[in-house]
Write a structure and sequence with these properties.
The structure holds two protein chains of two kinds. Chain A has strands at residues 5-7, 10-13, 19-24, 31-38, 42-50, 53-56, 65-71, 74-79, 88-95, 106-107, 111-115. By secondary structure, chain A is mainly β. In chain B, a hairpin with a 5-residue loop joins β4 (29-37) and β5 (43-48). The chains are: A mainly beta, B mainly beta.
């Protein structure tokens, strides 16, 4: 398996622009997570999905952030409008709670977002 | 919510040395994982270890759930071991799959 695939790897945008980050989880995994990593706050869970349904979005900073999972193989995290304080590395991760290794989490390579 | 503390915060080793990283958590857990973030930012899952001991090559991990801590052992360290090591836990009764990460241990292995 190719692992969790995220795109783009890097995104540079201007304040006020819409940003869309994409994620393809590992095939067969039914849980998907979006994390944000910054120096100040470390790794924070933004939202996670189980069987394509959002279960907990309490980590989403504010209404400017939204996430969708239209099917088992694709998810997006959208920021609109973007602000400089959104600059961070955004990771997508997936797991299979019913599989061997139970709930072992696998991360994508991340998207480095810079909002100028 | 559950608190996760890692120690030491940073560590410098000479190649070939051994080290022990510690993760303390404030509540009972049913899921504990160790991750390595390499200097390129990739997060690699090392162990899923809610209890007991596991070994993978030069790395091993032990979790003593009753005493609320886990240890990661690195033997004969190599420069490729450099990076940040994270412990992440999920507490009993917590939201399903909501792993909470510690602040990490920054390891630098010098040649």
């Amino acid at each position: 398996d190719a692992g969790v695939i995220q795109s783009p790897r890097h995104e540079v945008t201007e304040m006020g622009q819409e940003v869309t980050l994409r994620c393809k989880p590992i095939s067969g995994h039914n849980s998907l997570f979006w994390y944000r990593q910054t120096m100040m706050r470390g790794l924070e869970l933004l939202i996670y999905f189980n069987n394509n349904v959002p279960i907990d979005d309490s980590g989403m900073p504010e209404d400017r952030f939204s996430a969708k999972m239209p099917n088992a193989s694709f998810s997006t995290l959208k920021i609109q409008p973007s602000e400089p304080r959104d600059s961070a590395v955004y990771f997508c991760a997936s797991s299979n709670p019913r599989g061997a290794g139970r709930e072992k989490l696998f991360f994508g390579s991340g998207t480095q977002l810079s909002v100028l | 919510g559950i608190q996760v503390e890692q120690s030491p915060p940073d560590l410098i080793l000479q190649e070939g040395a051994n080290s022990t990283l510690r993760c303390n958590f404030s509540d009972s857990v049913n899921n504990l994982q160790w991750f390595h973030q390499n200097p390129w930012g990739q997060l690699i899952n090392l162990f899923y270890i809610p209890s007991g001991t596991k070994q993978n090559g030069r790395l091993s991990a032990t979790t003593v759930a009753t005493e609320r801590y886990s240890l990661l052992y690195i033997s004969s360290s190599q420069t490729t071991d450099s990076g940040v090591y994270f412990c992440a836990v999920l507490s009993y009764g917590g939201a399903t799959n909501k792993l909470i990460f510690g602040t990490g241990t920054l390891l630098a292995v010098q040649p």
